[in-house]
Write a structure and sequence with these properties.
Helix 6 crosses helix 7. This protein is mainly α. Strand 1 and strand 2 form a beta hairpin. The protein contains eight helices and two strands. The protein is elongated, with a radius of gyration of 19 Å.
């Protein structure tokens, strides 16, 4: 029987799991299991994407110090400084991304439009320097990165919210199977 291979992107070692098709077919047998697995899968994928977005920025080392200082000044928020998100990033690497997601959403919420624009410029400049992106304005690239970060943080929180309510899952399943 053929195995499915699943990557755990939140694990820094990129652990690969092998699941036999027989084991994976058990998920199909139980709608509650499907829901739970999908919610956790969505949350893990979104957490991995959050980490990927952060990894695209300069590393929080001496070489990246200027970027992080510029981001702090331009955004007007200290929520995104490495010293303030370190613990949440490390928990996210272990698969628990809700703390990082909440902190990111708080940071974005704290930025009024002029500061968001300025932060987008700083982020875009860093991304242009590190990636080979098409000829887009640095502010556009930074704003797209911020939007992606914000929406991905929302996905992490939304997936977490869905996964822990058995009564809500049953009501949802009952409603849709009775249509």
């Amino acid at each position: 029987m053929e195995d499915l291979v699943i990557a755990e992107p939140w694990n820094t070692n990129w652990t690969w799991l092998r699941i036999s098709r027989r084991a994976s077919s058990m998920w199909r047998a139980s709608p509650a299991s499907q829901w739970s697995a999908a919610a956790h899968s969505d949350g893990y994928a979104a957490t991995g994407h959050l980490l990927g977005l952060l990894a695209a920025l300069p590393a929080p080392t001496a070489a990246g110090e200027r970027f992080w200082s510029d981001l702090w000044r331009s955004s007007g928020t200290a929520y995104l400084l490495p010293v303030n998100i370190k613990d949440s990033v490390l928990r996210s690497l272990a698969g628990e991304g809700t703390g990082l997601a909440r902190q990111i959403l708080s940071a974005v919420d704290e930025m009024p439009p002029p500061q968001r624009f300025a932060a987008g410029e700083v982020i875009g400049q860093a991304l242009v320097e590190s990636d080979h992106l098409p000829d887009l304005k640095t502010q556009v690239i930074g704003e797209l990165w911020l939007r992606d970060l914000e929406l991905t943080a929302w996905r992490v929180l939304h997936a977490d919210r869905r996964s822990d309510d058995p009564a809500g899952r049953k009501a949802f399943l009952d409603a849709w199977t009775s249509v």
